[in-house]
Write a sequence for this structure.
C-alpha cells in the first residue's frame, strides 16, 4: 500500500574507462593551455572510452560492482533506468541493451533524457515506483560516452567532457528504516533550452552530409549563460531540499553536486552557505561526465572513505533543458 515503502541504497558502483585525456594532450589539439583549463574549470584529466565502447558497456561494469555490493544478481532486478544523452543508439534504449547484457528476466527498462540532471531524475522516478510498492529492486544508471558528441576543434566544449558510468540499486525498505531517500525535487525550464544543444540526429535535423559539413552532430554551448543558471538553479534546489525536510545545512555531511566546473561548485557552496570542504569534487580527474557525474563522484568519495553509511547527503544537479533537481538521502 502507498506510503509504507521507502528506497534504501542497496549498492553503488562506478566505472571510468582506462584511457586518460590530459590538458596537455588537449594543448596539442586546440588553442588552449593547462593553466587556463585548471584556473577556469578545475579539470585536469578526463577518461575517454575506446572506439566501439558504448554507454551500455560502461554501465555494465558499474552495474556489476553495484550488484556485488548489494549482494544481488541481475535476476533480482525489477526495473532498469538509464539516464544518458549518449545512448548506444536511438533505438532500442540503452536500458534494454543493458538488460540483455545482464541477462535479466522480463522486466521494465527505459532511458531518461534529462542531460546532466538525468541521474537525479532517474533516482526520483525509481523512488516513486518503490514508494507505491510496485517494484522492490531498481537499477538506476547515469552513463555517458560523451566524447562522441564533442567537437575536438571547439576549445570551449572539448576541454570539459569525459566518459563514465555510475550505478545505484534502490531497494524497497520499511518506511521506518533510517537510511532512505528522504525527498527529491525536479525542475525544468525549456525556455532556456538553446543554451546547451545537440542540434542534429533527431527528427528536426536528421543526419545528412550537411550535418557533417556544419558539424551539427556535436554539442553547442553558451558557457557563460549556463554557468550563471547552474549556480542559481543548484542553489535553489539545495535550499528546497532542506526546507522540505526541515534540515539545517550544518546537518548535511556531504553535498554531491553535478561536476561541471569547480568555480560553479564553489559559487553554489558560497550562496548556499555550505563549507567547501564538505562538497564532493571529482571533476579534476573526470571532467564533466553529464548524467554519470553524480554517481561517479559519490562512489569515488565512498571508495576514499569520505562518504560513509548513515551520513546525510544532498545531491544537486543541473543540465541541458535546462533541467535541475536535488535529492536528500541518508546513506
Ligand atoms: O553540464 C553543463 C555543461 N556546461 C557547463 O557546465 C558549462 C558552464 N560554463 C563554464 O564552465 C565556463 O563558462 C567555461 C569553462 C565554458 C568558460 O569559462 P569562462 O570563464 O566563462 O570563459 P569565457 O567564456 O568568458 O571566455 C573567456 C576567454 C574568451 O576569450 P576572450 O574573448 O576574452 O579573448 C574565450 O575565447 O577565454 C577564451 N577561451 C579559452 N581560452 C583558452 C574559451 N575557452 C578557452 C580555452 N582555452 N579552452
Amino acid at each position: 500500500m502507498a506510503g509504507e515503502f521507502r528506497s534504501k541504497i542497496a549498492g553503488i558502483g562506478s566505472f571510468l574507462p582506462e584511457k586518460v585525456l590530459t590538458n596537455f594532450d588537449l594543448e596539442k589539439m586546440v588553442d588552449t593551455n593547462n593553466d587556463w583549463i585548471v584556473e577556469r574549470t578545475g579539470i585536469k584529466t578526463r577518461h575517454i572510452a575506446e572506439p566501439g565502447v558504448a554507454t551500455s558497456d560502461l554501465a555494465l561494469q558499474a552495474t556489476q560492482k553495484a550488484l556485488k555490493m548489494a549482494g544481488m544478481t541481475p535476476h533480482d532486478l525489477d526495473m532498469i533506468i538509464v539516464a544518458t544523452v549518449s545512448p548506444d543508439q536511438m533505438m532500442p534504449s540503452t536500458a534494454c541493451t543493458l538488460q540483455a547484457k545482464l541477462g535479466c528476466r522480463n522486466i521494465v527498462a527505459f532511458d531518461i533524457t534529462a542531460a546532466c540532471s538525468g541521474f537525479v531524475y532517474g533516482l526520483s522516478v525509481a523512488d516513486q515506483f518503490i514508494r507505491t510498492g510496485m517494484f522492490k529492486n531498481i537499477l538506476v544508471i547515469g552513463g555517458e560516452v560523451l566524447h562522441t558528441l564533442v567537437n575536438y576543434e571547439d576549445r570551449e566544449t572539448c576541454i570539459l567532457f569525459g566518459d563514465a558510468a555510475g550505478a545505484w540499486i534502490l531497494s524497497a525498505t520499511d518506511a521506518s528504516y533510517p537510511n532512505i531517500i528522504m525527498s527529491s525535487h525536479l525542475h525544468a525550464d525549456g525556455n532556456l533550452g538553446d543554451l546547451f544543444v545537440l542540434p542534429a540526429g533527431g527528427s528536426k535535423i536528421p543526419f545528412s552530409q550537411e550535418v557533417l559539413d556544419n558539424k551539427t552532430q556535436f554539442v553547442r554551448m553558451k558557457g557563460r549563460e549556463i554557468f550563471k543558471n547552474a549556480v542559481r538553479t543548484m542553489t535553489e534546489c539545495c535550499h528546497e531540499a532542506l526546507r522540505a525536510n526541515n534540515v539545517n545545512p550544518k546537518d548535511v555531511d556531504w553535498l554531491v553536486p553535478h561536476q561541471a566546473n569547480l568555480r560553479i561548485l564553489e559559487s553554489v557552496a558560497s550562496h548556499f552557505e555550505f563549507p567547501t570542504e564538505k562538497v564532493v569534487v571529482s571533476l579534476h580527474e573526470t571532467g564533466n561526465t553529464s548524467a554519470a557525474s553524480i554517481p561517479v563522484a559519490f562512489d569515488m568519495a565512498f571508495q576514499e572513505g569520505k562518504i560513509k553509511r548513515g551520513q546525510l547527503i544532498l545531491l544537486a544537479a543541473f543540465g541541458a533543458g535546462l533541467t535541475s533537481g536535488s535529492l536528500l538521502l541518508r546513506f
